[in-house]
Amino acid sequence: MPEVRNAELKEQIRKRIANIGTLPSVPQIITEVSSLLDSDKTSASDLCRVISQDQGIVAKILAVANSPLYGLPRRVSTIEFAVVIIGFEHIRNILIALSLVEAFKNRITPNWDHNAYWIHSLLIATAAKRIADDLHYPKSGEVFTAGLLHDLGLVVLQRYMNSDFKKIVKIVEEQQMSYLNAEEEVLGFTHQDIAEFLLDKWNFPPYISEAVLYHHTPSLAENGKVLAALIHLADYMTQKLNIGAFEWDNDFVFDESVIKTLGLGSLEYLDEFIASYEPLFKSHLESITMN
């Protein structure tokens, strides 16, 4: 029974995560901002005052706002302008995702380049949001959140389960196995399962955690199929265009159900669709380098 396996899997992950002991809690800034946004009396300046306490987050919000893929009409130089032009609700989505990425920030090691991970994650988030906007999907802010957090499980795996992480890398190198299959062999689950467990633990909406869980296989999603398909497509595009690609996706298998889910017609049209985004992907990487 799938339900039984799912319950057993989550218990297995819970035990592994529980043994870590030092896993960060949801960052305080998220709690403060969420509290502010729940009040009708909160102004842009109130919000900026809290966000400005973390200059790392400020820099990342400005990087997001100035990405050509995000689609804002002019350069954003201050957090105040970012809040006004992006809007409170989208700022909340961006802030939550960025704060979690920052909380789990890793140092660079021989088998892990956190800067490459950050660039890839931000590209997926902004590209998936842009595609969602272009396809008139109504919740593009949530697409950004799911995109930025889609590989969160990898950070947890590398930082808190490092001996298993090294085993996975060794198996991939020696046996030419895909990373996902190596994760299954070593752990009995994947980085997608880890991320879903944490997002559930932190009370994210089920459709976001499901989209993260199935970002490699969106056809399996039930509640967030379109959201998972958008993340999957953006992930595939980084490989197809070889822009912002991440090593962990080297054996990426495209789920063709995405074509029907997103109404893209055919594989031939999909290739044209992807090619049309190449200049934006290149400009995005240039803007991130500038920031």
In short:
This protein has 291 residues and is an all-alpha fold. It is 67% helix and 0% strand.
Q: Which strand-content bin applies to the residues? A: under 5%
Number of domains in the coordinates? 2
Rough shape?
Answer: globular
In terms of per-residue confidence, which ranges show pLDDT below 50 for 5 or more consecutive residues?
Answer: none
Please characterize this protein's 3D structure:
With 291 residues, the chain is mainly α. The protein has 2 domains: 25-103, no CATH class; 108-290, Hypothetical protein af1432 (Orthogonal Bundle). Helix content is 67%, strand content 0%. Helix 4 (55-65) crosses helix 6 (88-103) and helix 12 (191-201) runs antiparallel to helix 13 (206-213). The chain starts with a helix and ends with a helix.
Question: What characteristics describe this protein?
Answer:
mainly alpha; globular; 291 residues; Hypothetical protein af1432
Outline the fold blueprint:
Blueprint: H1 2-18, H2 28-37, H3 44-51, H4 55-65, H5 79-86, H6 88-103, H7 114-134, H8 140-148, H9 152-160, H10 162-175, H11 179-187, H12 191-201, H13 206-213, H14 225-241, H15 257-261, H16 267-276, H17 278-290
Helix pairs in contact: 2-3, 2-6, 3-5, 4-6, 5-6, 6-8, 7-8, 7-14, 8-13, 8-14, 9-10, 9-12, 10-11, 12-13, 13-14
